Amino acid sequence: MNSERIIKKYPNRRLYDTEVSRYITLSDVRALVMGGVSFKVVDTANDTDITRSILLQIMLEEESGGEPLFSAPMLAQIIRFYGGTLQGLFTRYLETALNLFAKQQQEVKGAWGDNPFDAMTRLTQKNVELWTELQDDLMRAAGFSLPGDRKKKDEDPS
């Protein structure tokens, strides 16, 4: 059994949710995203996966509808990474950063029962550790060696 929900996009541009057997709107798809539901959008004309395209449409609506998440300089900076040698590294960096941010958001929600200042201090310390690890991993992935790597290599008896 496939746990991924299938949404079909027909040539008339309507979206059909196969799980609930009805047509849905982009707002309904947004609700699925917000609910953490795993889904895939398939174009019925050629069976291609157009999930990214639909998600980008939702983002465009969100960006034009109120306080934007992305500034123009930020979007320009992202566009500059397309086709460059670091595109894959940048993609991994953004995905990892967003995952860390979401994880920390959950931790903050759970920690507010404590003293808020203590919770923020712990969160800040953890942030520094996580970002240091992320930067080290990205530097290694880009082919750079770090000072700590030499020590580990010298200590490793194998």
Could you walk me through the main structural features you see in this protein, from its secondary elements to its overall organization?
This protein is α+β, with helices and mostly antiparallel strands and 158 residues long. The chain folds into two domains: 5-64, no CATH class; 85-155. Helix content is 59%, strand content 11%. It contains six helices and five strands, in the order E-E-E-H-E-E-H-H-H-H-H. The protein has helices at residues 26-34, 51-64, 72-81, 87-111, 116-141, 147-155; strands at residues 5-9, 15-17, 22-24, 39-43, 48-49. Strands 3-2-1-4-5 form a five-stranded mixed β-sheet. The longest helix has 26 residues, at 116-141. It is globular and about 55 Å long. The N and C termini lie far apart (45 Å). Pfam families: PHB_acc, PHB_acc_N. Residues 70-107 form the PHB accumulation regulatory domain. This is PhbF.
